[in-house]
Amino acid sequence: MDSSTQTAPPSKAALWTGRILTILPALMLLMSGIMKIAKPPSVVQGFEHLGYPERLAMTLAILEIGCTLIYLIPQTTVLGAILLTGYLGGATATHLRIGEPVNCITTVLLGVVIWLGVFLRDPRLRALIPLRS
């Protein structure tokens, strides 16, 4: 490999910031998936509010937890980030469909944090998306 295509490993600060920015959204998504499995009244009401049948809760929980676990495995973190981007895109579209654009900000920011965590930890991604000239 040509040395001009290699990037330096992340600094300790970038590595730890990336780890934190990976863990926080992952914990949020895992908790969300677990809540969909547990189906407390607030989740059932949320599904009604969003216009989705309650029977989809388990399917969405499996998708959410599965994509998050793939994201947490270092060898598959980029694939997990791609899958979570798609999942969050669906959440964004759902909120837009029912006229809640403010909630779209949360899903979009969550996606940005997911990718920022990968960007700070993985020199291969920084090589693909150089932010310096």
Structure write-up:
With 133 residues, the chain is mainly alpha-helical. Helix content is 76%, strand content 0%. It has six helices and no strands. It has helices spanning 12-38, 41-50, 57-72, 77-97, 101-121, 123-128. Helix 3 packs antiparallel against helix 4 (77-97). The two termini are 21 Å apart.
Please give a quick description of this structure.
The protein has 133 residues and is mainly α. It is built from six helices and no strands.
Largest sheet: none
The separation of the N and C termini measures 21 Å
* Rounded average pLDDT: 92
Care to count the β-strands? 0
Rg over CA atoms: 17 Å
Instruction: Note the total helix count.
Output: 6
Beta-sheet strand percentage?
Answer: under 5%
Question: What brief labels describe this structure?
Answer:
mainly alpha; 6 helices; 133 residues; single chain; 76% helix
Blueprint (SSEs and pairs):
Elements (H helix, E strand, L loop, with lengths): L11 H27 L2 H10 L6 H16 L4 H21 L3 H21 L1 H6 L5
